[in-house]
Design goal:
Elements: E1 2-10, E2 13-20, H1 29-119, E3 121-128, H2 135-148, E4 161-164, E5 175-181
Antiparallel strand pairs: 1-2, 3-5, 4-5
């Protein structure tokens, strides 16, 4: 507590005198030491817990970073494979388009060839079926038919191919068509 005395001898000179006295404390050094020890122990245990938590967080963060790195690598790999597959798919589509165009052109050529072959094909129907018939026998039949209609057919020079076909699925002794390409 501070006590101040003011002297007013002269109005311009004021002197202040202060006396400081400390309050007497009781002897509580043992309680203070116990409190200090308790606080120190408490802070040390908190520090240990915080250090453990910090280490756990660091290891978890390290694992997460590694996982993120692995995920990024996988994502990059998958993106690369996706790009490759997209290119392959595009090239296959292009190739398929060209193949379809080629098939269409071949079909057109086949149609033209079939139409042209029909113009040079003669089909003679209702000829009795002979099991041991040869191409020469068939050619002879065609030549005889040509002679009947006053259209002589030379041997082997006018005939490109000759064949005997049967429309009957049972292959019974029935009449058969004879096809000749001129």
């Amino acid at each position: 507590m501070a006590i101040a005395q003011v002297q007013e001898d002269e109005p311009s000179q004021i002197s202040i005198e202060m006396r400081s006295t400390k309050r007497k404390r009781e002897d509580s050094s043992e309680e203070l030491i116990n409190l200090k020890n308790d606080l120190t122990h408490m802070f040390l245990s908190w520090k240990t817990e915080q250090d453990n938590s910090y280490c756990t967080l660091l290891s978890t963060m390290k694992e997460i970073k590694e996982q993120n790195t692995d995920i990024q690598k996988s994502n990059d790999f998958l993106a690369q494979k996706y790009d490759e597959l997209t290119q392959k798919f595009g090239s296959l589509e292009n190739e398929n388009k060209h193949q379809l165009e080629y098939i269409n052109s071949l079909e057109s050529k086949i149609d033209i060839l079939e139409r042209n072959s029909k113009a040079t094909t003669v089909e003679i129907c209702n000829i009795p079926l002979n099991q041991k018939e040869t191409k020469n026998d068939l050619l002879k039949i065609v030549q005889e038919a040509g002679n009947l209609i006053n259209l002589p057919i030379e041997k082997k020079t006018s005939v490109m191919s000759i064949e005997s076909t049967s429309n009957n699925k049972n292959n019974k002794q029935t009449l058969k068509p004879l096809t000749k390409n001129l």
